[in-house]
Amino acid sequence: MERDLYTVAQLRTIEQAAQVGLPPGTLMQRAGKAAAHYVLELLGDRRDQPVLVLAGPGNNGGDALETAANLAESGIDATVLHLPGQRDASTETAAAYDRARSGSVGWIDMLPPDAEWGLVVDGLFGIGLERPLDGDYRELVLGLDAIRCPVLALDVPSGLDADTGAVIGPDGIAVRATHTVTFLGDKPGLHTADGRDHAGHVRVDMLGFGDDMLPRATAQLSGLPLFASRFTARRHNTHKGSFGDVAVVGGAHGMAGAPVLAARGALYAGAGRVYVAALGTPPGYDSSQPEIMFRAADDVDFLGRTLVIGPGMGDSANAIRLLAKALDGDSPLVIDADALNLIGASPDLQARLAQRAAPAVLTPHPLEGARLLGMTVAVVQSDRLASAREMALRTNATVILKGSGTVIARPDGHVLVNPTGNAGLATPGSGDVLAGICGALLAQGWPAWEAAAAGAWIHGAAADALVDEGVGPIGLTAGELPAAMRKVLNRLVKDAASR
What we know:
The protein has two domains: 3-217, YjeF N-terminal domain (Rossmann fold); 224-498, CATH 3.40.1190.20. The protein is elongated, with a radius of gyration of 25 Å. The two termini are 16 Å apart. The chain has 499 residues and is of the alpha/beta class. The relative contact order is 0.10. Helix content is 38%, strand content 15%. The strands form two sheets. Strands 1-9-18-17-16-15-14-13-10-11-12 form an eleven-stranded mixed beta sheet, with helices on both faces. It has a seven-stranded parallel beta sheet with strand order 4-3-2-5-6-7-8, with helices on one face. Helix 2 crosses helix 3 (59-73), helix 9 (337-344) runs parallel beside helix 11 (366-373) and helix 15 (448-468) packs across helix 16 (481-498).
Protein backbone atom coordinates (compact mmCIF):
# COMPACT_ATOMS: atom_id res chain seq x y z
CA MET A 1 0.00 0.00 0.00
CA GLU A 2 1.22 3.49 -0.84
CA ARG A 3 2.25 5.83 1.99
CA ASP A 4 2.81 9.55 2.06
CA LEU A 5 6.37 10.68 2.73
CA TYR A 6 7.13 13.87 4.65
CA THR A 7 10.16 16.13 4.89
CA VAL A 8 11.72 17.11 8.19
CA ALA A 9 10.24 20.61 7.84
CA GLN A 10 6.76 19.14 7.35
CA LEU A 11 7.23 16.81 10.30
CA ARG A 12 8.17 19.69 12.56
CA THR A 13 4.85 21.32 11.67
CA ILE A 14 2.99 18.04 12.20
CA GLU A 15 4.64 17.58 15.59
CA GLN A 16 3.73 21.10 16.68
CA ALA A 17 0.11 20.54 15.67
CA ALA A 18 0.03 17.18 17.48
CA GLN A 19 1.24 18.73 20.74
CA VAL A 20 -1.56 21.27 20.93
CA GLY A 21 -3.70 20.57 23.98
CA LEU A 22 -1.51 17.74 25.26
CA PRO A 23 0.46 17.73 28.54
CA PRO A 24 4.24 18.20 28.05
CA GLY A 25 6.05 14.98 27.27
CA THR A 26 2.97 13.15 25.93
CA LEU A 27 4.43 12.46 22.48
CA MET A 28 7.71 11.22 23.98
CA GLN A 29 5.82 8.91 26.32
CA ARG A 30 3.74 7.56 23.46
CA ALA A 31 6.86 7.03 21.36
CA GLY A 32 8.47 5.11 24.23
CA LYS A 33 5.42 2.88 24.56
CA ALA A 34 5.22 2.26 20.82
CA ALA A 35 8.92 1.39 20.62
CA ALA A 36 8.78 -0.89 23.67
CA HIS A 37 5.80 -2.72 22.19
CA TYR A 38 7.76 -3.26 18.97
CA VAL A 39 10.79 -4.50 20.91
CA LEU A 40 8.62 -7.10 22.66
CA GLU A 41 7.22 -8.14 19.30
CA LEU A 42 10.68 -8.52 17.81
CA LEU A 43 12.00 -10.47 20.78
CA GLY A 44 9.10 -12.91 20.57
CA ASP A 45 9.94 -15.92 22.73
CA ARG A 46 13.42 -14.51 23.49
CA ARG A 47 12.27 -12.13 26.21
CA ASP A 48 14.82 -13.55 28.61
CA GLN A 49 17.59 -11.94 26.54
CA PRO A 50 18.93 -8.51 27.55
CA VAL A 51 18.21 -5.37 25.54
CA LEU A 52 20.70 -2.53 25.10
CA VAL A 53 19.22 0.95 24.68
CA LEU A 54 21.43 3.70 23.25
CA ALA A 55 20.18 7.11 24.37
CA GLY A 56 21.54 10.34 22.93
CA PRO A 57 21.32 13.88 24.27
CA GLY A 58 18.18 15.14 22.54
CA ASN A 59 14.54 14.21 22.32
CA ASN A 60 15.38 11.06 20.38
CA GLY A 61 17.37 10.04 23.45
CA GLY A 62 14.29 10.86 25.52
CA ASP A 63 12.25 8.46 23.38
CA ALA A 64 14.92 5.83 24.07
CA LEU A 65 14.85 6.43 27.81
CA GLU A 66 11.06 6.07 27.83
CA THR A 67 11.48 2.86 25.85
CA ALA A 68 13.95 1.48 28.40
CA ALA A 69 11.66 2.34 31.33
CA ASN A 70 8.72 0.61 29.65
CA LEU A 71 10.80 -2.47 28.85
CA ALA A 72 11.98 -2.74 32.45
CA GLU A 73 8.38 -2.50 33.66
CA SER A 74 7.54 -5.37 31.28
CA GLY A 75 10.19 -7.56 32.91
CA ILE A 76 12.87 -7.12 30.25
CA ASP A 77 16.51 -6.87 31.30
CA ALA A 78 17.06 -3.39 29.80
CA THR A 79 20.39 -1.57 29.97
CA VAL A 80 20.94 2.04 28.92
CA LEU A 81 24.12 3.47 27.48
CA HIS A 82 23.50 7.20 27.79
CA LEU A 83 25.64 9.81 26.06
CA PRO A 84 24.55 13.25 27.30
CA GLY A 85 25.34 16.32 25.24
CA GLN A 86 26.98 19.59 26.12
CA ARG A 87 23.64 21.40 26.31
CA ASP A 88 20.97 20.91 28.92
CA ALA A 89 18.37 18.33 27.99
CA SER A 90 14.80 19.42 27.29
CA THR A 91 12.31 19.23 30.15
CA GLU A 92 10.68 16.18 28.54
CA THR A 93 13.99 14.35 28.07
CA ALA A 94 15.04 15.16 31.64
CA ALA A 95 11.77 13.70 32.89
CA ALA A 96 12.31 10.55 30.82
CA TYR A 97 15.82 10.24 32.29
CA ASP A 98 14.49 10.50 35.84
CA ARG A 99 11.84 7.88 35.11
CA ALA A 100 14.39 5.44 33.71
CA ARG A 101 16.74 6.07 36.65
CA SER A 102 14.02 5.40 39.20
CA GLY A 103 13.22 1.92 37.90
CA SER A 104 15.15 -1.30 37.37
CA VAL A 105 16.97 -0.17 34.21
CA GLY A 106 20.68 -0.95 34.17
CA TRP A 107 23.29 1.66 33.20
CA ILE A 108 26.68 1.41 31.50
CA ASP A 109 29.20 3.97 30.21
CA MET A 110 30.66 2.01 27.28
CA LEU A 111 30.03 -1.07 25.19
CA PRO A 112 31.25 -4.21 26.98
CA PRO A 113 33.70 -6.03 24.69
CA ASP A 114 32.01 -9.44 24.62
CA ALA A 115 28.47 -8.81 25.83
CA GLU A 116 25.62 -10.54 24.02
CA TRP A 117 22.32 -8.76 23.48
CA GLY A 118 18.95 -9.93 22.28
CA LEU A 119 18.30 -6.56 20.64
CA VAL A 120 19.75 -3.04 20.47
CA VAL A 121 17.60 0.11 20.42
CA ASP A 122 19.16 3.07 18.61
CA GLY A 123 17.98 6.33 20.17
CA LEU A 124 21.10 8.41 19.67
CA PHE A 125 19.87 10.99 17.15
CA GLY A 126 16.66 11.55 15.19
CA ILE A 127 15.56 13.76 12.33
CA GLY A 128 17.25 16.86 13.71
CA LEU A 129 20.83 15.69 13.15
CA GLU A 130 22.66 17.98 10.70
CA ARG A 131 26.33 17.05 11.17
CA PRO A 132 28.25 13.78 10.87
CA LEU A 133 28.55 11.52 13.87
CA ASP A 134 31.91 12.06 15.53
CA GLY A 135 33.77 11.42 18.76
CA ASP A 136 32.13 8.99 21.16
CA TYR A 137 29.03 8.73 18.98
CA ARG A 138 31.04 7.59 15.99
CA GLU A 139 32.99 5.05 18.04
CA LEU A 140 29.78 3.71 19.53
CA VAL A 141 28.15 3.23 16.11
CA LEU A 142 31.31 1.56 14.81
CA GLY A 143 31.18 -0.78 17.80
CA LEU A 144 27.66 -1.88 16.88
CA ASP A 145 29.02 -3.65 13.81
CA ALA A 146 30.42 -6.36 16.08
CA ILE A 147 27.04 -7.01 17.74
CA ARG A 148 25.10 -9.75 15.97
CA CYS A 149 21.48 -9.06 16.88
CA PRO A 150 18.49 -7.09 15.63
CA VAL A 151 18.78 -3.30 15.85
CA LEU A 152 15.67 -1.14 16.18
CA ALA A 153 16.11 2.53 15.24
CA LEU A 154 13.77 5.11 16.72
CA ASP A 155 12.35 7.46 14.08
CA VAL A 156 15.45 7.29 11.85
CA PRO A 157 18.79 5.44 12.11
CA SER A 158 21.31 7.76 13.75
CA GLY A 159 23.51 9.42 11.12
CA LEU A 160 21.01 9.07 8.25
CA ASP A 161 19.40 12.11 6.62
CA ALA A 162 15.63 11.62 6.89
CA ASP A 163 14.96 13.74 3.81
CA THR A 164 17.50 12.30 1.37
CA GLY A 165 18.53 8.88 2.63
CA ALA A 166 22.18 9.90 2.43
CA VAL A 167 24.55 9.21 5.31
CA ILE A 168 25.34 12.64 6.74
CA GLY A 169 28.85 13.86 5.95
CA PRO A 170 31.38 12.90 3.25
CA ASP A 171 33.02 10.43 5.61
CA GLY A 172 29.97 9.91 7.77
CA ILE A 173 28.59 6.74 9.26
CA ALA A 174 25.12 5.71 10.34
CA VAL A 175 23.54 2.97 12.40
CA ARG A 176 22.67 -0.06 10.28
CA ALA A 177 19.29 -1.05 11.70
CA THR A 178 17.29 -4.16 10.90
CA HIS A 179 14.06 -2.36 11.83
CA THR A 180 12.92 1.24 12.21
CA VAL A 181 9.83 2.52 13.98
CA THR A 182 9.20 6.02 12.69
CA PHE A 183 6.77 8.45 14.26
CA LEU A 184 3.98 10.73 12.98
CA GLY A 185 4.67 10.09 9.30
CA ASP A 186 7.01 8.21 7.01
CA LYS A 187 10.22 9.78 5.72
CA PRO A 188 11.65 9.52 2.18
CA GLY A 189 15.19 8.99 3.45
CA LEU A 190 14.21 5.64 4.94
CA HIS A 191 13.46 4.27 1.47
CA THR A 192 16.08 5.55 -0.98
CA ALA A 193 19.86 5.97 -1.35
CA ASP A 194 21.50 4.54 1.80
CA GLY A 195 18.13 4.36 3.54
CA ARG A 196 17.17 0.84 2.60
CA ASP A 197 20.51 -0.52 3.82
CA HIS A 198 20.32 1.38 7.11
CA ALA A 199 16.61 1.47 8.01
CA GLY A 200 15.68 -2.16 7.38
CA HIS A 201 11.97 -2.88 7.78
CA VAL A 202 10.08 0.37 8.41
CA ARG A 203 6.98 0.65 10.59
CA VAL A 204 5.06 3.94 10.96
CA ASP A 205 3.42 4.69 14.30
CA MET A 206 1.09 7.68 14.42
CA LEU A 207 1.29 7.90 18.24
CA GLY A 208 -2.46 7.76 18.60
CA PHE A 209 -3.31 10.29 15.89
CA GLY A 210 -5.25 9.68 12.69
CA ASP A 211 -4.09 10.31 9.14
CA ASP A 212 -6.49 13.26 8.98
CA MET A 213 -3.94 15.38 10.83
CA LEU A 214 -1.40 14.95 8.04
CA PRO A 215 -1.06 17.54 5.26
CA ARG A 216 -1.03 16.72 1.59
CA ALA A 217 2.32 15.22 0.60
CA THR A 218 4.24 15.72 -2.63
CA ALA A 219 6.08 12.41 -2.19
CA GLN A 220 4.76 8.91 -1.71
CA LEU A 221 6.02 5.40 -1.28
CA SER A 222 4.80 3.77 -4.46
CA GLY A 223 2.30 0.94 -4.31
CA LEU A 224 -0.31 -0.97 -6.28
CA PRO A 225 -3.25 1.34 -5.52
CA LEU A 226 -1.57 4.07 -7.56
CA PHE A 227 -1.87 2.10 -10.79
CA ALA A 228 -3.96 -1.02 -10.07
CA SER A 229 -6.91 0.32 -12.08
CA ARG A 230 -4.82 -0.11 -15.23
CA PHE A 231 -4.60 -3.88 -14.81
CA THR A 232 -7.44 -5.26 -16.89
CA ALA A 233 -8.06 -8.75 -18.26
CA ARG A 234 -7.74 -9.08 -22.00
CA ARG A 235 -10.84 -9.63 -24.08
CA HIS A 236 -11.01 -12.77 -26.21
CA ASN A 237 -11.87 -10.74 -29.31
CA THR A 238 -8.43 -9.16 -29.77
CA HIS A 239 -5.38 -9.58 -31.97
CA LYS A 240 -1.71 -8.69 -31.72
CA GLY A 241 -2.40 -5.25 -33.14
CA SER A 242 -4.65 -4.54 -30.16
CA PHE A 243 -1.68 -4.20 -27.83
CA GLY A 244 0.54 -1.76 -29.64
CA ASP A 245 3.87 -1.84 -31.43
CA VAL A 246 7.19 -1.20 -29.71
CA ALA A 247 10.35 -0.39 -31.65
CA VAL A 248 13.61 -0.46 -29.73
CA VAL A 249 16.05 1.91 -31.42
CA GLY A 250 19.65 1.04 -30.64
CA GLY A 251 22.14 -1.72 -31.20
CA ALA A 252 25.11 -0.01 -32.78
CA HIS A 253 28.02 -2.24 -33.78
CA GLY A 254 29.15 -4.38 -30.84
CA MET A 255 26.16 -3.42 -28.67
CA ALA A 256 23.38 -5.65 -29.97
CA GLY A 257 22.56 -7.20 -26.59
CA ALA A 258 21.05 -4.10 -24.99
CA PRO A 259 18.17 -3.62 -27.47
CA VAL A 260 17.45 -7.35 -27.43
CA LEU A 261 17.02 -7.26 -23.65
CA ALA A 262 14.75 -4.21 -23.97
CA ALA A 263 12.76 -5.95 -26.69
CA ARG A 264 12.31 -9.05 -24.55
CA GLY A 265 11.13 -6.85 -21.70
CA ALA A 266 8.54 -5.27 -24.01
CA LEU A 267 7.43 -8.63 -25.41
CA TYR A 268 6.97 -10.23 -21.99
CA ALA A 269 5.12 -7.14 -20.75
CA GLY A 270 2.47 -7.68 -23.40
CA ALA A 271 3.32 -5.51 -26.38
CA GLY A 272 1.63 -6.80 -29.53
CA ARG A 273 4.56 -6.53 -31.91
CA VAL A 274 8.16 -5.78 -30.99
CA TYR A 275 10.91 -4.61 -33.32
CA VAL A 276 14.58 -3.92 -32.87
CA ALA A 277 15.55 -0.98 -35.08
CA ALA A 278 19.28 -1.59 -35.22
CA LEU A 279 21.85 1.06 -36.04
CA GLY A 280 24.42 -1.64 -36.77
CA THR A 281 23.87 -4.67 -38.95
CA PRO A 282 20.77 -6.30 -37.49
CA PRO A 283 20.93 -10.00 -36.66
CA GLY A 284 18.60 -12.29 -38.57
CA TYR A 285 16.64 -13.21 -35.46
CA ASP A 286 16.85 -13.80 -31.72
CA SER A 287 17.26 -17.55 -31.28
CA SER A 288 15.83 -17.38 -27.75
CA GLN A 289 12.96 -15.10 -28.72
CA PRO A 290 12.27 -15.41 -32.45
CA GLU A 291 9.06 -13.38 -32.10
CA ILE A 292 11.18 -10.21 -32.04
CA MET A 293 11.58 -8.66 -35.50
CA PHE A 294 14.84 -7.01 -36.58
CA ARG A 295 15.17 -4.15 -39.03
CA ALA A 296 17.75 -1.56 -39.96
CA ALA A 297 16.91 1.59 -38.00
CA ASP A 298 16.71 3.72 -41.15
CA ASP A 299 14.04 1.38 -42.56
CA VAL A 300 11.68 1.57 -39.57
CA ASP A 301 8.74 3.97 -39.66
CA PHE A 302 8.47 5.59 -36.21
CA LEU A 303 4.89 6.72 -36.83
CA GLY A 304 2.28 4.84 -34.80
CA ARG A 305 4.81 3.01 -32.67
CA THR A 306 6.04 3.45 -29.12
CA LEU A 307 9.79 3.94 -29.22
CA VAL A 308 12.32 2.72 -26.68
CA ILE A 309 15.36 4.66 -27.80
CA GLY A 310 18.92 4.47 -26.53
CA PRO A 311 19.92 0.91 -25.55
CA GLY A 312 23.28 0.25 -27.19
CA MET A 313 22.70 3.22 -29.48
CA GLY A 314 26.16 4.75 -29.40
CA ASP A 315 26.96 8.37 -30.19
CA SER A 316 27.35 8.41 -33.97
CA ALA A 317 25.96 11.11 -36.22
CA ASN A 318 23.23 8.68 -37.28
CA ALA A 319 22.33 8.07 -33.63
CA ILE A 320 21.93 11.82 -33.09
CA ARG A 321 19.84 12.13 -36.26
CA LEU A 322 17.49 9.30 -35.26
CA LEU A 323 17.12 10.69 -31.75
CA ALA A 324 16.24 14.14 -33.11
CA LYS A 325 13.70 12.52 -35.43
CA ALA A 326 12.12 10.67 -32.51
CA LEU A 327 11.99 13.80 -30.35
CA ASP A 328 10.33 15.77 -33.15
CA GLY A 329 7.70 13.08 -33.70
CA ASP A 330 4.49 12.23 -31.87
CA SER A 331 5.37 8.70 -30.76
CA PRO A 332 5.39 7.91 -27.04
CA LEU A 333 9.03 7.61 -26.00
CA VAL A 334 11.06 5.74 -23.43
CA ILE A 335 14.49 7.37 -23.45
CA ASP A 336 17.33 5.33 -21.99
CA ALA A 337 21.07 4.82 -21.95
CA ASP A 338 22.98 6.42 -24.84
CA ALA A 339 20.00 8.57 -25.84
CA LEU A 340 20.10 10.16 -22.38
CA ASN A 341 23.80 10.87 -22.75
CA LEU A 342 23.27 12.47 -26.16
CA ILE A 343 20.51 14.69 -24.77
CA GLY A 344 22.69 15.64 -21.81
CA ALA A 345 25.41 16.80 -24.18
CA SER A 346 23.14 18.79 -26.51
CA PRO A 347 21.12 21.91 -25.61
CA ASP A 348 19.30 21.49 -28.92
CA LEU A 349 18.11 17.97 -28.08
CA GLN A 350 17.18 19.11 -24.58
CA ALA A 351 15.00 21.84 -26.05
CA ARG A 352 13.32 19.42 -28.46
CA LEU A 353 12.53 17.07 -25.58
CA ALA A 354 11.14 19.83 -23.35
CA GLN A 355 8.85 21.06 -26.14
CA ARG A 356 7.25 17.67 -26.85
CA ALA A 357 3.53 17.18 -26.28
CA ALA A 358 3.60 13.39 -26.63
CA PRO A 359 4.44 11.23 -23.57
CA ALA A 360 8.08 10.66 -22.66
CA VAL A 361 9.58 8.54 -19.89
CA LEU A 362 13.28 8.91 -19.06
CA THR A 363 15.09 6.07 -17.28
CA PRO A 364 18.49 7.38 -16.14
CA HIS A 365 20.83 5.76 -13.69
CA PRO A 366 22.69 8.27 -11.46
CA LEU A 367 25.55 8.87 -13.91
CA GLU A 368 23.17 9.52 -16.80
CA GLY A 369 21.14 11.75 -14.50
CA ALA A 370 24.28 13.67 -13.59
CA ARG A 371 25.03 14.26 -17.26
CA LEU A 372 21.50 15.50 -17.86
CA LEU A 373 21.78 17.96 -14.97
CA GLY A 374 25.40 18.97 -15.54
CA MET A 375 26.57 17.88 -12.10
CA THR A 376 28.39 15.03 -10.41
CA VAL A 377 26.96 11.67 -9.43
CA ALA A 378 27.69 12.52 -5.79
CA VAL A 379 25.44 15.58 -6.00
CA VAL A 380 22.65 13.59 -7.67
CA GLN A 381 22.85 10.88 -5.02
CA SER A 382 23.04 13.37 -2.15
CA ASP A 383 19.37 14.23 -2.77
CA ARG A 384 17.78 11.79 -5.17
CA LEU A 385 14.27 13.22 -4.85
CA ALA A 386 15.41 16.76 -5.66
CA SER A 387 17.53 15.48 -8.58
CA ALA A 388 14.64 13.52 -10.09
CA ARG A 389 12.32 16.51 -9.69
CA GLU A 390 14.80 18.78 -11.43
CA MET A 391 15.21 16.36 -14.34
CA ALA A 392 11.46 16.06 -14.77
CA LEU A 393 11.03 19.84 -14.68
CA ARG A 394 13.80 20.53 -17.20
CA THR A 395 12.73 17.85 -19.65
CA ASN A 396 8.95 18.13 -19.23
CA ALA A 397 8.91 14.34 -18.91
CA THR A 398 8.35 11.58 -16.41
CA VAL A 399 11.67 10.49 -14.92
CA ILE A 400 12.66 7.17 -13.37
CA LEU A 401 15.91 7.76 -11.47
CA LYS A 402 17.14 4.21 -10.97
CA GLY A 403 18.97 2.99 -7.90
CA SER A 404 18.21 1.77 -4.41
CA GLY A 405 14.77 3.20 -3.81
CA THR A 406 14.13 4.19 -7.43
CA VAL A 407 12.56 7.66 -7.63
CA ILE A 408 9.80 8.44 -10.15
CA ALA A 409 9.16 12.15 -10.74
CA ARG A 410 6.87 14.22 -12.91
CA PRO A 411 7.20 17.88 -13.97
CA ASP A 412 4.79 19.21 -11.32
CA GLY A 413 7.18 18.03 -8.59
CA HIS A 414 5.27 14.99 -7.36
CA VAL A 415 7.54 12.00 -6.71
CA LEU A 416 7.23 8.34 -5.85
CA VAL A 417 9.84 6.14 -4.18
CA ASN A 418 9.64 2.56 -5.38
CA PRO A 419 9.81 -0.05 -2.60
CA THR A 420 10.44 -3.18 -4.68
CA GLY A 421 13.72 -4.61 -5.93
CA ASN A 422 17.01 -5.77 -4.50
CA ALA A 423 20.75 -5.82 -5.15
CA GLY A 424 20.29 -8.41 -7.90
CA LEU A 425 19.20 -5.57 -10.18
CA ALA A 426 22.75 -4.17 -10.04
CA THR A 427 23.63 -6.21 -13.11
CA PRO A 428 24.26 -5.28 -16.76
CA GLY A 429 21.10 -5.00 -18.83
CA SER A 430 18.52 -4.77 -16.06
CA GLY A 431 17.84 -1.15 -17.00
CA ASP A 432 17.27 -2.18 -20.62
CA VAL A 433 14.58 -4.62 -19.46
CA LEU A 434 12.94 -1.84 -17.41
CA ALA A 435 12.87 0.43 -20.46
CA GLY A 436 11.20 -2.35 -22.45
CA ILE A 437 8.55 -2.90 -19.78
CA CYS A 438 7.71 0.82 -19.72
CA GLY A 439 7.55 0.87 -23.51
CA ALA A 440 5.09 -2.01 -23.56
CA LEU A 441 2.80 -0.32 -21.04
CA LEU A 442 2.86 2.92 -23.04
CA ALA A 443 2.09 0.97 -26.20
CA GLN A 444 -0.96 -0.53 -24.47
CA GLY A 445 -2.32 2.92 -23.76
CA TRP A 446 -1.08 3.55 -20.23
CA PRO A 447 -0.35 7.19 -19.31
CA ALA A 448 3.32 7.95 -18.76
CA TRP A 449 3.02 8.42 -14.99
CA GLU A 450 1.29 5.10 -14.37
CA ALA A 451 3.52 3.30 -16.89
CA ALA A 452 6.64 4.55 -15.10
CA ALA A 453 5.34 3.75 -11.62
CA ALA A 454 4.07 0.30 -12.57
CA GLY A 455 7.11 -0.49 -14.70
CA ALA A 456 9.51 0.22 -11.84
CA TRP A 457 7.32 -1.66 -9.35
CA ILE A 458 6.94 -4.76 -11.54
CA HIS A 459 10.62 -4.75 -12.49
CA GLY A 460 11.61 -4.75 -8.81
CA ALA A 461 8.95 -7.29 -7.85
CA ALA A 462 10.26 -9.66 -10.51
CA ALA A 463 13.75 -9.45 -9.00
CA ASP A 464 12.29 -10.03 -5.53
CA ALA A 465 10.43 -13.11 -6.78
CA LEU A 466 13.60 -14.51 -8.31
CA VAL A 467 15.50 -14.03 -5.06
CA ASP A 468 12.69 -15.75 -3.16
CA GLU A 469 13.15 -18.69 -5.54
CA GLY A 470 16.89 -18.82 -4.85
CA VAL A 471 17.92 -17.07 -8.08
CA GLY A 472 20.07 -14.23 -6.82
CA PRO A 473 20.71 -11.65 -5.75
CA ILE A 474 24.25 -12.80 -6.51
CA GLY A 475 24.45 -13.88 -10.11
CA LEU A 476 20.96 -12.76 -11.11
CA THR A 477 21.07 -11.78 -14.78
CA ALA A 478 18.96 -9.35 -16.76
CA GLY A 479 17.88 -12.11 -19.12
CA GLU A 480 16.05 -13.81 -16.26
CA LEU A 481 13.90 -10.77 -15.50
CA PRO A 482 11.39 -10.75 -18.40
CA ALA A 483 9.84 -14.15 -17.64
CA ALA A 484 9.70 -13.38 -13.92
CA MET A 485 8.13 -10.02 -14.69
CA ARG A 486 5.49 -11.72 -16.85
CA LYS A 487 4.43 -13.85 -13.87
CA VAL A 488 4.13 -10.77 -11.68
CA LEU A 489 2.12 -8.90 -14.30
CA ASN A 490 -0.34 -11.72 -14.94
CA ARG A 491 -0.85 -12.26 -11.21
CA LEU A 492 -1.68 -8.58 -10.81
CA VAL A 493 -4.16 -8.70 -13.68
CA LYS A 494 -5.78 -11.85 -12.23
CA ASP A 495 -6.01 -10.25 -8.78
CA ALA A 496 -7.57 -7.12 -10.28
CA ALA A 497 -10.15 -9.17 -12.16
CA SER A 498 -11.17 -11.04 -9.00
CA ARG A 499 -11.86 -7.86 -7.01
